[in-house]
Amino acid sequence: xxxxxxxxxxxxxxxxxxxxxxxxxxxxxxxxxxxxxxxxxxxxxxxxxxxxxxxxxxxxxxxxxxxxxxxxxxxxxxxxxxxxxxxxxxxxxxxxxxxxxxxxxxxxxxxxxxxxxxxxxxxxxxxxxxxxxxxxxxxxxxxxxxxxxxxxxxxxxxxxxxxxxxxxxxxxxxxxxxxxxxxxxxxxxxxxxxxxxxxxxxxxxxxxxxxxxxxxxxxxxxxxxxxxxxxxxxxxxxxxxxxxxxxxxxxxxxxxxxxxxxxxxxxxxxxxxxxxxxxxxxxxxxxxxxxxxxxxxxxxxxxxxxxxxxxxxxxxxxx
Length: 319
Ligand code: NDP
Description:
The mean pLDDT is 94. Strands 1, 2, 5, 6, 7, 8 and 19 form a 7-stranded mixed sheet that branches. A 5-stranded parallel sheet has the order 10-17-11-12-13. The protein is elongated. Helix 4 runs parallel beside helix 5. The chain is of the alpha/beta class. It contains 6 helices and 19 strands. The chain binds NADPH dihydro-nicotinamide-adenine-dinucleotide phosphate.
């Protein structure tokens, strides 16, 4: 059955749930279509569900775990009456107002699940993968994009993390709580990570950095048993016996379902202007789906607040 709403929020990371708190408190009775549980960052709560301790979110003197923080965001949004719908948006039609949204749990797709006066897109970004044979098949069988979710399974084992950015440093440091050794596979001779994170990883005795190397093959039948590394300078290969491989090489925006309906940049990030306005009047975007520069929980939450205020004012002007 189709439901008519004033505001539909697509995505439930810090941006979407902040927009939900603000629009709910403005009596706009938002629905948050939160996404579906998955093994990647494309899931309810967004990327912070795959993070460990967050030390830089203001207000938490001693830090807070990512999933706990997102649980708080959600409970706060629900407290003010935001409705949370556990499904993904499978299709959107922004060609005319009111907008139409279909969801992944619909049995009958002849009618949309929601007809919305306004839409806030806060679908975030997801983890990039290496593109190796059997990489996806081995997710949950040695390959992971989530140290928080899967680190526990590698107690006392030797594992590898790929990437040279802050995500890779964070994952590698966290994984030393469980693994006997963490190999950090870096494709260049230097790290992209911030100085403080890089230093923490370099100083950690359980982390061995393997410079100028890429993962070229995944070995193992039902589960990962080793990886092949190729040296980027001389093309020599070597085998590394690890039972876990954590891929932490960056992110891509979750905008596939909005392709050709809304203006995006060459990397698929939604283009916003004048705050959170998009190329479609009545559709707003906030968080990592429109920001590849800052990508922080606090900036995502801040832009979620902006989207809520933009929507509120826009709706007022419509009536
Ligand atoms: P980044 O884009 O910063 O880093 C990606 C890393 O993966 C780079 O080192 C890149 O190598 C490497 N890489 C990319 N593709 C491949 C490949 N196919 N094979 C091997 N290596 C590859 O992404 P992050 O997710 O690390 O960070 C994104 C943003 O989020 C950053 O701004 C970061 O600062 C922030 N962040 C902050 C955190 C914090 O403060 N606690 C935690 C996590 C992220 P190369 O360097 O050669 O390009």
